[in-house]
Amino acid sequence: MRLPQVRLQSQQALISIETERAQVQMQQPKATQEIQQPQAEVTINTTPSRLTIDQSQAWYDMGLKSVKQAHQDEAKRGYQKVLEGIARRVNDGNEQMKIENGGAPLITQAVRHAYKPEKQFNIGWIPSTFAVKTDYQPAEVDIRVNVNAPMIRNTPNKPIMSYSPGYARTGIRQENDLQVDFEPLVFRNFQFEMSI
Question: Global pTM?
Fold first, then answer.
């Protein structure tokens, strides 16, 4: 006798999912910027330097004088000589007036006036030291700077965005299935069939 047998064969359902990602595209244009820098205003005022050289004393020491100066110097020297002559004569007269004090004033005066005194010699410099006088006034520079501020114009640009939404599609890739196979029970030569 054979026992009946039941065979089950099943198949699970399968789901299919198809997706596409969302896409975002962004572009950020640079800001529009304009910069202008006006030039600074510079004003320069210069007073020139001045150099004065006075060498009249050097020319004077070398005997190179103007006519006017030569006349003045000779007049002073003549006046001085006149005063010296008057003083010498007064002195000689006083010596002769006091002859009672003894001595021989006339002989002494004759010897003194007969011989001129020796000339004194010494080293000198022509022209004299520091005869040339200089005077220097340095230049003056006045600088004025007027700074102009830069002019800046800035225009921001909005970002450019594009968006593609994503999606998900679902479906059944394989349907579920159940198959039942039944083998009937056999008694002696009887056959019994049963199907579901």
Answer: 0.38
Pair 52, 134: CB distance under 8 Å:
yes
Cα separation, 75 vs 62, in Å, equals: 19
Domain ranges of the chain: 1-20+167-196, 41-98+128-148
Closest CA to 95 of 111, 83, 81: 111
3-state secondary structure of 180: strand
Residue 145 CA to residue 41 CA, distance in Å, equals 6
Percent of the chain with pLDDT over 90: 30
Amino acid at 137: Q
The kind and range of the H/E element at 68 are helix 67-97
Highest-confidence segment of 72-76, 97-101, 164-168, 180-184: 72-76
Biggest alpha carbon–alpha carbon distance for the chain: 218
Amino acid (one-letter) located at 85: G
